[in-house]
C-alpha cells in the first residue's frame, strides 16, 4: 500500500520534528535555571522566619465556642423539622 507507507513516513518525520522541538524547549528551560520544569515552587522548605502560632484570649475562645454551639443547635433544630 503506497499510501500507507507515505503516511507512516510523514508520521516519523513529524515525530522527529517534535523531538527536536522538545529538546530545544528543554535546553531553553535549563539555561533559565528551571531544569526540566520539575521541582518545588516558592521558598525552600524551612527558609525564612518560622511561623508563630497566634494566641487567642480566653474570652475570644469562649465567644467562638458559643457561636459554634449556636450553629450546631440551629442545625439540629432544622434537622428535627424535616
Please outline the helices and strands.
Layout: H1 2-31, H2 58-81
Describe the structure.
The protein has one domain. It is 66% helix and 0% strand. It has helices spanning 2-31, 58-81. The model has no long low-confidence stretch (mean pLDDT 85). It starts with a helix and ends with a helix. The radius of gyration is 31 Å and the shape is elongated.
Average pLDDT across residues?
85
How many domain modules? 1
From the alpha carbons, calculate the radius of gyration and give it in angstroms: 31 Å
Distance between the termini: 72 Å
Query: Which descriptor suits the 3D outline?
Result: elongated
Report helical residue fraction.
55-70%
Mind describing the biggest β-sheet? none
As a percent range, the share of strand residues is under 5%
Number of strands: 0
The helix-and-strand class reads mainly alpha
How many H/I helical runs? 2
How would you spell out the order of helices and strands? HH
Provide the low-confidence segments as ranges: none
Features:
single chain, 66% helix
Q: What's this entry about, in short?
A:
This protein is an all-alpha fold and 82 residues long.
Amino acid at each position: 500500500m503506497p499510501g500507507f507507507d507515505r503516511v507512516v513516513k510523514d508520521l516519523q518525520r513529524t515525530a522527529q520534528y517534535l523531538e527536536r522541538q522538545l529538546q530545544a524547549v528543554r535546553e531553553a528551560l535549563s539555561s533559565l535555571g528551571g531544569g526540566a520544569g520539575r521541582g518545588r515552587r516558592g521558598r525552600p522548605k524551612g527558609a525564612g522566619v518560622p511561623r508563630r502560632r497566634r494566641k487567642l484570649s480566653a474570652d475570644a475562645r469562649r465567644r467562638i465556642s458559643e457561636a459554634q454551639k449556636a450553629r450546631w443547635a440551629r442545625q439540629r433544630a432544622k434537622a428535627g423539622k424535616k
